[in-house]
Amino acid sequence: MSCTNSLIFAAVSFCILVMNQIACAADAQAQQSQQCGGFITSCKEPFDHSQGFLQGTCKTDKGRWVVTSIDLDPHISNVNGNMVLGNGYKKTCQDFGYARSSTSFIAAANCTKFDGKLRRTGFDVNTRISNQNGRLNWDKNCGS
């Protein structure tokens, strides 16, 4: 093989390798961006939502069950007695609890409205929290 052919072969091989790496990275990013919530399918009772933290028992990739928790305060806000995306809800909410169904997990609390009265409100954290190898993770890029 001539020196020119060897260089062309090396250049083509390098391009194929780089293109493959880019495609793999794009696939991984697409899979990661599609992960939006759904922790209740791989986590089990007992759950606890107290003092603004959510705690549960979740399955790892190897099938072990581990206790894990996540602070919801950096992700949820109180706007006039409604829990919405944002941060700092623990400052104006109290009496934390939850309601669970087969498809949702509502973190609930009594939150202060603008008029000072309390409103029982909730936020479906199952739309934002996933189980990442036994760890509760807030999925930031899940729609609006």
UniProtKB/TrEMBL annotation:
<protein>
    <recommendedName>
        <fullName>Cyanovirin-N domain-containing protein</fullName>
    </recommendedName>
</protein>
<feature type="signal peptide">
    <location>
        <begin position="1"/>
        <end position="25"/>
    </location>
</feature>
<dbReference type="Pfam" id="PF08881">
    <property type="entry name" value="CVNH"/>
</dbReference>
<dbReference type="InterPro" id="IPR036673">
    <property type="entry name" value="Cyanovirin-N_sf"/>
</dbReference>
<dbReference type="InterPro" id="IPR011058">
    <property type="entry name" value="Cyanovirin-N"/>
</dbReference>
<keyword id="KW-0732">Signal</keyword>
<feature type="domain" description="Cyanovirin-N">
    <location>
        <begin position="38"/>
        <end position="138"/>
    </location>
</feature>
